[in-house]
């Protein structure tokens, strides 16, 4: 059902939900940087367990940012390069994993880190549940976008701390505006690839 979603953004104030959300969006559009730079929020600690890197999101700590690692092939280690891969809205984990493994092994020898965030108790790698990045809840849609941008920036900075000389983002479909937001409002990333850009024009027209 349609909702302005002010509770998802933890917004309070005088007036209707529509008026409260409109003031928030106007403030965001006047100066997006305070909302879309991870350094303006508490910086969470990154945890590693096997191939899984995770940390609680700055916006909602019940949600978890998760990145799955595939290491850089041994035959190309002169320059340490990593890609953060941001999938489309309802991806199948293993299809992405196998596809990027083939590309990494034969064509583009870089490390890859796939972004598959978990909301509450949702385990996406197990049940392929779609990530609710779009929907009739306006506040939740904004929250997910902001949360993803901050998570990607935080992890990009962590990759630089791990010793990667070059860190980039590859965004597909709805991952593209997230890639753009993460790169525009930080100086972490060395390159950005955005695929299926028609969705980006839709975002621009909406915001």
Question: Care to give the gist of this entry?
Answer:
The chain has helices spanning 17-30, 93-106, 124-127, 138-161, 175-184, 198-206, and strands spanning 47-49, 52-56, 63-70, 81-86, 111-115, 118-119, 166-172, 191-195. It is an alpha/beta fold and 207 residues long. The two termini are 21 Å apart.
Helicity level: 25-40%
For the CA atoms, what is the radius of gyration? Answer: 17 Å
User: In terms of per-residue confidence, which ranges show pLDDT below 50 for 5 or more consecutive residues?
Assistant: 199-207
Number of helices: 6
The SSE string, one letter per element, is HEEEEHEEHHEHEH
Distance between the termini: 21 Å
Mean pLDDT: 84
How is this fold's topology laid out?
Blueprint: H1 17-30, E1 47-49, E2 52-56, E3 63-70, E4 81-86, H2 93-106, E5 111-115, E6 118-119, H3 124-127, H4 138-161, E7 166-172, H5 175-184, E8 191-195, H6 198-206
Parallel strand pairs: 4-5, 4-7, 7-8
Antiparallel strand pairs: 1-2, 2-3, 3-5, 3-6
Helix pairs in contact: 4-5
Describe this entry's structure for a reader.
The chain is 36% helix and 20% strand. With 207 residues, the protein is an alpha/beta fold. The longest helix has 24 residues. The chain is elongated. It starts with 16 loop residues before the first helix and ends with a helix. The relative contact order is 0.17. The C terminus is likely disordered.
How would you describe this structure in keywords?
single chain; 207 residues; alpha/beta; 8-stranded mixed beta sheet; 20% strand; elongated
